[in-house]
Records
---
Amino acid sequence: MPATEMQQLVSLCQRRGFIFQSAEIYGGMKGFYDFGPMGVELKNNIKQSWWKAMVYQRDDMEGIDGCTIAPAVVFQQSGHTETFTDPLTECRDCKSRMRTDKMKDPTVCENCGSKNLMEPRNFNLLFPVQVGAVEGAQSLAYLRGETAQHIFINFKNVTDSTNRRPPFGIAQMGKMYRNEIIARNFIFRVREFEAMEMEFFVPPGTDEKWHEYWLEERLKWWESIGVPRNKININDKPKEELAHYSKRTFDLEYLYPHGYDEIEGIANRTDYDLGSHSKNQDELNLTATPITNTRSNAKLTAQNAEGQHYVPFVIEPAAGVERAMLAVLCEAYTEEVLENGDTRTVLKFKPHLAPIKAAVLPLARNKPELVALAQSVKNTLQKLGLGRIVLDTSGNVGKAYRKHDEVGTPLCITVDFESLEDGQVTVRDRDSMAQIRLPIAALAQHLRGIVEDAA
């Protein structure tokens, strides 16, 4: 059964090295988290799965990796300096700050119950930074609040260097920063996080078809990493809630322990962004109204079969890595009562996402010949390139099984004294706990089948 309370995940993630509060030894920094040995592997595996699905398995996609800082003009032209805001109120009594659009009653303080609240005001989420030694308007820049803008401002560079023409996409993963008023719900709403974002450029008039197409593609991917469709609500956002650039947006909302909340947005951004970053906007016949007085020197257009220039529409599926990670943890989390009455906690990850793919356990850690054989088995499996394989020399196989259940390791492989004689090992399956004897020579094929077949 998936996790029903956030504290179940918080406790497990701290205990088993998935997620730590950043700067914890100094009291922590709210809205910032560090990812431990298990967490970094899970994050990387989720990102690799996304990149594989979005780039490697398609013939209409390119990737980039843009800077996390951009000059202020980029975000002025994109509209973020004016519209990238949340409504903020503050309690005059307890000094708590709250987002009024997330409050059950925007007239009552969520912390102390007071009705002595300040008038709401718009709070910009961008983090400003000064670039260079001299402060001033010319050196003002921002940490990016979305990865999309570096895709748009590199549109011409990508098309010129790859000869791509719509329909095609540009994918990017990387850090983003949002100065959230309230960071809450563990890693769901934080101030530094990673995005998996793609901009798919299409001819005007085909955008609605592609928007529906990408909705289905993204639902398939969530299923492939263990997040079922029946846990995802598709919110076709009403017009009054759309972002300034959006013609239509589907919010995919997953049932987290704190309730349904956004796990991915799939937006039809029209020609707003390429138009906003282009010069001579009055010559482009734009459908959307971009920011005016652009200082870009580029004309971000494509050509149709007749050689006519046009500004492509853009479909954008954008997901947060941390939110994906939290959903995967929720779905994998399982508490089971065993036949002997004991309970075990196990993370039933899809094998290709598991932080550790297999653990090799010598039955006795003080027997050099067992440790040496276990090390040899570990080295052989590591060379398969399937992910992390570990040598666990704790010496207590039962405790090792429980530990690896809690971090989601699909297979535990025990090297015992018989292994020295017959060249076979005991292989334990995480989910069924069934054990079989296999020749060491057959382990590679067995592990590859489990990990790759589930990918």
---
Amino acid sequence: MSDVEIKVHENGPYKVTGPVTVVDADGGLYELGEEGKPIALCRCGGSTTKPFCDGTHSKAGFDAAERAVAEQD
């Protein structure tokens, strides 16, 4: 199995590289990330192609935290 990397883009989407399966709320499966092609997952909530990014964040002025925060007990 290949490695999967999730990279947070500043004020943008999560870029996922590697073979992944996205399962929607109805149980629909999307096999993605094959052949080294990354996918971008929306973080702003404004995309019309959720859960995938369509670039709306740049028009909406999305501002997000970029740094991981340690889990608290």
